[in-house]
Specification:
Helix 2 runs antiparallel to helix 3 and helix 3 packs across helix 4 (94-107). The chain has helices spanning 2-19, 34-57, 63-88, 94-107. The model has no long low-confidence stretch (mean pLDDT 84). The protein has four helices and no strands. By secondary structure, the chain is mainly alpha-helical. The longest helix has 26 residues, at 63-88. It has one domain.
Length: 111
């Protein structure tokens, strides 16, 4: 009988804790969509490109290093834009196709 009362009391405490927990504001915050994540990534890449150009003008990078890093960031930007097109169901833009074409050409082995 004592065990049954202990189980009932424990069940009552558990139910009170479950149903009387106050919601946190973050519980109601909208969740970031895949498109939001891609847009943030795109903005970060564009900011990195601006910083890279500034640092190149300041003399921190040689022309060759600058072009390599710039090409890498442009390829990454094209990939993010293509993913954004996929998520939104839109066709790739001409600039996305142009950078993607450069990416394919850059990956081909040089003789």
């Amino acid at each position: 009988m004592l065990i049954a009362l202990a189980c009932i009391a424990l069940s009552a405490v558990v139910l009170l804790l479950i149903f009387h927990v106050k919601s946190d504001r973050s519980d109601f915050a909208p969740h970031r969509t895949r498109l939001d994540q891609l847009m943030e990534r795109r903005d970060a890449i564009y900011e990195n490109l601006r910083d890279l150009k500034f640092e190149h003008r300041a003399g921190k990078f040689s022309d060759g290093d600058f072009e390599d890093m710039k090409r890498t960031l442009e390829i990454e930007a094209a990939q993010v834009l293509a993913q954004m097109d996929t998520v939104t169901g839109g066709a790739p833009t001409p600039s996305t196709r142009q950078v993607a074409t450069r990416q394919v050409a850059a990956q081909k082995p040089r003789a």
